[in-house]
């Protein structure tokens, strides 16, 4: 026998040993009889030794039952306030101004600036946005076939370099996007789609003009795809290869940068101009009168017989493809468009257009050829900013008439409508009494606040919001100052960018580890996933008066705190907990808001 078998045998009972099983019923009976016998003996003893008989009945035997105990629930040291939106509260409004790079209007202010100068200048512009409590930046990143970013398709912008042979001192767009996000603002990359040159060059041939451009400029490389009108050059929207190139230029930015929106201005086909006729009088001059794109029409017309209808289809197909491409690449990036304020005249469009005189400019029939109304009705853009650059009193294009028309166009769509205001005319048109009033733009905004579908305002342009920059003087400067003060008052409270109904729904997660102790509010980001659209972009701290926790009152928006990479715990100190109650919520990049976490005040 091996050792293992020997060990197993030792641990076994001997085969001849018989161990009887217990009879449970007999055991219980014996136990009961023993208890009765003991009880009887005790009773007998008590009677023997007692002076008086005890007549107190014996209590019945009790069966002990174990009562389950409820687990103690620890109260959470905070309250969750659900946010029930009231879009009429004033809490939700898009606010921005165009920051133009063309001609060095707003940024950069001059060519050839150093890296440090560029950064300081951009930060000062962000200060200006913050001063007016704006929540989005619109920077022109491709002003005329060039780029303020690292591009394999477009050359560095001369408005930065000052020399078509030089490169950018830094990737300006990368810096600008990060800087805007660090202040809790959206960043909209503004593209001019087809423009090649800005200024008239009547004394130069087209070939000579192209030679002034960078050797890598698409227009110079492909002169056959360039059209000339009013002594300016632009890429031919009727050429499918041109449309593809412009879309690829935009998609390069969408892929490589964390922008919040693609923003296009209204340079598609050219606006009308004027020229001298044979009698020496100045008369309107429209693109196409000299057959500028007839050859393109013959080559690409397909089934179209009307060249104007074909042009409108070219711009429609361009915008349709761009919209699909952007949303396929990044569903959370918006596509915005800023068209001329008059789409078309009612008299010329079977009543569809605005009630404006037919001798006013428009963009449907005679120039630009952009059917912005159709784009809105088909939800091919996420927001639209018509440039309504006139006052209420101007008969050629009354502000109120056009604002109402655009409001009606947006009705029933998912497109956000913002209004473009001409604050530059407060200075440039100072001789016009309609522009020489201190509340011109705030009167316009007060009016649009009564329109159901208007959700924000944009000013052209940023530079006119700082009247003491040294660029302005005289009566116009005083007019700017008065209006700017009114705008600041009008924007005295913070506003949140409205949730866009054309983009995917996002799911915010409320902040976690929220505490309030020693007048210091601390919290952490509650989102732990990886879905870009659901990530927290910023937090909002509310300051509620005692007894009033209305999350829709914009007066209670106290502090916006952007998410900072690498920061785990956020804090806000010196709070007035004696007079106010504080809460904090989280917003996604598409501005969906979580519940507001209102922490209990911990002992000091």
UniProtKB/TrEMBL annotation:
Compositional bias (Acidic residues): 63-75
Pfam families named in the record: GHL10
Name of the featured protein: Uncharacterized lipoprotein YddW, UPF0748 family
Residue segments, region Disordered: 52-75
Organism whose genome encodes this protein: Proteiniclasticum ruminis
Entry keywords, A to Z: Lipoprotein, Signal
SUPFAM superfamilies reported for this sequence: (Trans)glycosidases
Domain Glycosyl hydrolase-like: 94-435
InterPro entries reported for this sequence: Divisome_Glycosyl_Hydrolase (IPR052177), GH (IPR017853), GHL10 (IPR003790)
UniProt keyword Metal-binding present: no
Source organism superkingdom: Bacteria
Matches recorded under PANTHER family: GLYCOSYL HYDROLASE DIGH
């Amino acid at each position: 026998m091996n050792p293992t078998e020997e060990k197993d045998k030792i641990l076994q009972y001997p085969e001849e040993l018989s161990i009887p099983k217990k009879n449970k019923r007999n055991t219980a009976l014996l136990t009961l009889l023993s208890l009765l016998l003991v009880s009887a003996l005790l009773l007998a003893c008590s009677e023997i030794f007692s002076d008086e008989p005890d007549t107190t009945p014996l209590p019945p035997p009790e069966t002990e039952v174990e009562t389950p105990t409820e687990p103690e629930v620890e109260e959470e040291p905070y309250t969750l306030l659900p946010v029930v939106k009231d879009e009429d509260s004033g809490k939700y409004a898009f606010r921005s101004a165009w920051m133009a790079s063309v001609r060095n209007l707003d940024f950069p202010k001059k060519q050839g600036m150093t890296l440090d100068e560029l950064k300081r200048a951009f930060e000062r512009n962000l200060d200006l946005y913050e001063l007016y409590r704006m929540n989005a930046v619109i920077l022109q990143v491709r002003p005329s076939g060039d780029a303020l970013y690292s591009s394999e398709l477009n050359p560095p912008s001369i408005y930065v370099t000052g020399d078509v042979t030089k490169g950018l001192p830094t990737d300006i767009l990368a810096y600008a996007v990060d800087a805007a996000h660090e202040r809790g603002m959206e960043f909209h990359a503004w593209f001019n789609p087809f423009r090649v040159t800005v200024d008239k060059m009547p004394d130069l041939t087209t070939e000579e003009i192209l030679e002034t451009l960078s050797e890598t400029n698409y227009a110079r490389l492909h002169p056959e795809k360039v059209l000339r009108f009013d002594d300016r050059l632009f890429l031919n929207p009727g050429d499918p290869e041109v449309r593809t190139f412009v879309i690829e230029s935009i998609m390069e930015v969408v892929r490589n940068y964390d922008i919040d929106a693609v923003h296009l201005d209204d340079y598609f086909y050219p606006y009308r101009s004027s020229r001298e006729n044979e009698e020496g009088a100045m008369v309107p001059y429209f693109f196409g009168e000299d057959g500028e794109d007839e050859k393109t029409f013959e080559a690409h017309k397909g089934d179209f017989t009307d060249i104007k209808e074909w042009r409108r289809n070219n711009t429609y197909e361009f915008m349709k493809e761009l919209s699909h491409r952007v949303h396929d690449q990044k569903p959370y990036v918006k596509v915005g468009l800023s068209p001329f304020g008059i789409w078309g005249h009612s008299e010329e469009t079977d009543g569809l257009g605005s009630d404006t005189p037919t001798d006013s400019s428009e963009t449907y029939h005679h120039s630009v050829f952009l059917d912005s109304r159709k784009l809105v009705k088909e939800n091919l853009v996420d927001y639209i900013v018509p440039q309504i650059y006139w006052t209420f009193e101007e008969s050629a294009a009354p502000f109120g008439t056009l604002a109402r028309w655009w409001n009606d166009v947006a009705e029933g769509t998912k497109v956000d409508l913002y209004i473009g205001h001409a604050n530059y005319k407060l200075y440039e048109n100072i001789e016009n009494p309609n522009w020489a009033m201190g509340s011109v733009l705030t009167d316009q905004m007060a009016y649009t606040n009564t329109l159901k579908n208007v959700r924000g305002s944009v000013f052209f342009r940023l530079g006119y919001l700082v009247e003491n920059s040294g660029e302005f003087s005289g009566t116009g400067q005083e007019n700017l100052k008065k209006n700017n003060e009114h705008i600041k008052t009008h924007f005295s409270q913070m506003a949140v960018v409205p949730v866009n109904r054309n983009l995917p729904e996002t799911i915010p997660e409320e902040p976690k580890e929220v505490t309030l102790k020693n007048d210091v509010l601390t919290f952490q980001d509650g989102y732990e996933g990886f879905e870009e659209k659901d990530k927290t972009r910023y937090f909002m701290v509310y300051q509620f008066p005692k007894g009033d926790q209305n999350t829709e009152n914009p007066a209670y928006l106290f502090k916006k705190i952007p998410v900072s990479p690498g920061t785990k715990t956020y804090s806000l100190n010196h709070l007035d907990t004696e007079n106010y109650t504080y809460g904090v919520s989280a917003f996604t990049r598409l501005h969906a808001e979580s519940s507001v976490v209102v922490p209990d005040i911990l002992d000091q």
